[in-house]
Design goal:
The chain is an alpha/beta fold. It is built from 13 helices and 8 strands. The chain has one domain (about 35-285): TIM Barrel, CATH 3.20.20. Bound molecules: dihydroflavine-adenine dinucleotide. The site of dihydroflavine-adenine dinucleotide has 23 residues, from strand 4, strand 7 and helix 12.
Length: about 300
């Protein structure tokens, strides 16, 4: 792992930076590349701009770990409102949430109820709810809460990370249980005991797990839907070729990318008949999330520096 990436991942957890950096105007300008704005209205407007291109959306509000269950309840209330607004505008937008934002560090039982409440509202509004995967210390707890709600709500999807050694087993166990699995490479700083340290191995693991998901989709059409959360165009191309060879229809799997990354490819892929969704992040507490995006590609620091010069 590069030194720059390590420093950025450290910075993403630094409370002093988290408090001070977002106050600078250049920082606010730089974050606009990845975030249309800090509130739900900005996300809704961005979703409406993407719709004519045939691109769907997924919303998530940034925020880090919570201190009280009241804060978790406020998150739930926020997302209940999101599902209503999205339905009013017929956007078909899905929501993706972190279980720590629903109270996982405080009370897993309350978190389960919070997730159930959101899954029910998503179902009532005819859409789906995704659960993000956080660092490796949360995987077991995330799976437990996810499975408890999955029994009653089939519209739940889960994110799995190809950098973790355990993911192949988790994927095999979940393949026939869940509505959708969103495979990503993984964004956290993990020890070599649990995750591939080399990017080439993470990429190889992604392709192998992706093929497993596509094969399952071929054998059991409609369940679970493979969702590839990546901007790795070459890798997506190889998976698309594999899907075509297996006779899997293009609308039987999806590509999810982040807002502001590879935007031209998002449009090109949608025009080529792929199901594409863009994950739009918004919210006031954007610093840790933003620095993790920089860590994924330290060359992005150039954008921050250019914003500083252009101030
Ligand atoms: P890779 O890092 O190989 O990048 C491929 C190419 O994409 C790069 O060469 C570059 O051109 C472009 N690119 C990638 N990241 C960029 C960036 N930040 N800025 C500019 N260009 C960039 N992680 C996690 O641990 N838990 C989760 O729940 C999620 N959820 C999630 C949802 C969705 C929809 C996406 C797309 C990603 C996530 N992630 C995530 C993040 C994921 O784990 C991973 O860190 C990033 O997607 C970057 O990896 P890529 O797969 O894009 O490949």
């Amino acid at each position: 792992m590069s030194v720059a990436r390590n420093v950025l991942l450290w910075a993403s957890r630094n409370k002093w930076l988290s408090h001070h950096f977002p106050r600078y105007r250049f920082a606010q300008a730089a974050v606009r590349r990845f975030m249309p704005g800090t509130n739900l209205d900005a996300a809704l407007e961005a979703a409406q701009r993407l719709r004519p291109h045939g691109i769907g959306t997924v919303f998530t509000q940034v925020g880090e770990n919570l201190a009280t269950l009241d804060e978790a309840r406020a998150e739930v209330d926020h997302y209940l409102g999101v599902f209503d607004r999205v339905a009013e505008l017929s956007l078909g937008t899905q929501v993706s949430i972190k279980l720590t934002h629903l109270g996982l560090d405080i009370d897993p039982a309350a978190t389960t109820e919070n997730l159930r409440t959101l899954a029910q509202r998503a179902a009532d509004r005819g859409t789906a709810l995704f659960v993000d995967m956080e660092d490796s210390s949360y995987v077991d707890r995330t799976l437990d809460v996810f499975r408890s709600v999955l029994h009653t709500h089939g519209n739940l999807g889960l994110c799995l990370q190809s950098y973790l050694f355990r993911t192949e087993t988790d994927l095999s166990d979940l393949l026939l249980e869940t509505a959708a699995i969103r495979l990503v490479k993984g964004a956290y700083r993990e020890p070599a005991a649990v995750a591939f340290p080399k990017k080439a191995d993470v990429d190889r693991s992604y392709e192998q797990l992706g093929r497993m998901m596509l094969r399952a989709a071929a054998d059991h059409p409609g369940k679970p839907k493979p969702v590839f959360g990546t901007h790795d165009i070459a890798l997506l191309g190889r998976l698309a070729k594999f899907a075509d060879a297996e006779g899997i229809a293009r609308d039987a799997w999806e590509i999810h990318m982040l807002y502001g990354i590879r935007s031209a490819d998002q449009i090109r892929l949608a025009q080529a008949g792929h199901r594409v969704r863009v994950l739009i992040t918004y919210g006031e507490q954007w610093f840790p999330w933003y620095v993790r995006r920089l860590a994924e590609r330290p060359a992005n620091i150039g954008f921050v520096l250019r914003s500083l010069v252009a101030r």
